[in-house]
């Protein structure tokens, strides 16, 4: 294929995302009577999460994924883990160099490490297969494989996002709220103030400890125990409880993610794809329950347009704010959309040369593209959850996704020509 043909194949899916996303952004404004209002977006997001996406994932996996495929894809979870690890290092370097406000620290690290592993690949990768003269073989086979790869990526990415990224956002948010509370609430005991400040800077002091100091900790007991000893004892107990609480929270979040509808659909899709007699129940013209597969395919077809409209509606919030410095936005964009994909390309090529990857070039394309994806949209959900940095998050997501429209086209064109 010539360069112009490669550019056309790579750019069409991105342009489709831009057009539908722009429509979603317009639908969230007063020009369309706020048709995509925040409440409606929440409701539609639930429908996509609970119905459309699981249907698409199951239908794709059951039809095109076998037990041998699952074994041969073992490098994908390793690859996603590497993207989070290296992206986290790049984000940490930016924090040290830029020295931003504590409110933005977690966002910078999360934006560099956590890519959109599901929704965006689910839109872009199958669309490349649908182009005439596509580079990855027959359109139908390529499309099924692309949806399977993207769905598997989404299931795995969700686990990393709701563990690693969740804790990154949470820890910085708690530190920020604790320091913010410490400036408002003044504790009488000077010794305790110094101790509290130290704990706050270490990120071990929650806003509840600062804002709601138990009076019993400052009453001298009958054995004449000092106020300072009681305060330190209380803080020590709270610190231990905090660590244990954090561990339980992480494990519960991981279990919750594994029990999410897309993850459950992935499991059953794998099961039906791997077990021949289950597969024959729903797949094929003579399958007795083929109507179930057809219904799921019909529901799954609503996933991509709804996701893209929601993406545009959510990003529109970033147009109303200028709360992040331009240097921060430029740094995140360079680290996430340029430096990380270059590192990822070398890693994937090295794995391919060592014989660790399937021969399918589409699989390698997906692996490299995982490094080039803009930040995960779930980051905005986390900032809303902790009520810290929501405005800044909208700005970062808006400009990184605008930049990704150009970089994804460039990377796709380059990867198609190389792979």
From TrEMBL:
One GO CC annotation: endoplasmic reticulum membrane
Taxonomic superkingdom: Eukaryota
Pfam families cross-referenced by the UniProt entry: Mem_trans
Transmembrane segments: 12-32, 44-62, 74-95, 107-128, 148-166, 263-283, 295-315, 327-350, 362-383, 395-416
Subcellular location: Endoplasmic reticulum membrane
Alphabetic keyword roster: Auxin signaling pathway, Endoplasmic reticulum, Membrane, Transmembrane, Transmembrane helix, Transport
Principal subcellular localisation of the protein: endoplasmic reticulum
BP term (GO), one: endoplasmic reticulum to cytosol auxin transport
Membrane topology: Multi-pass membrane protein
Family per similarity comment: Belongs to the auxin efflux carrier (TC 2.A.69.2) family.
Job of this protein: Involved in cellular auxin homeostasis by regulating auxin metabolism. Regulates intracellular auxin accumulation at the endoplasmic reticulum and thus auxin availability for nuclear auxin signaling.
Name recorded for this polypeptide: Auxin efflux carrier family protein
Source species: Lupinus angustifolius (Narrow-leaved blue lupine)
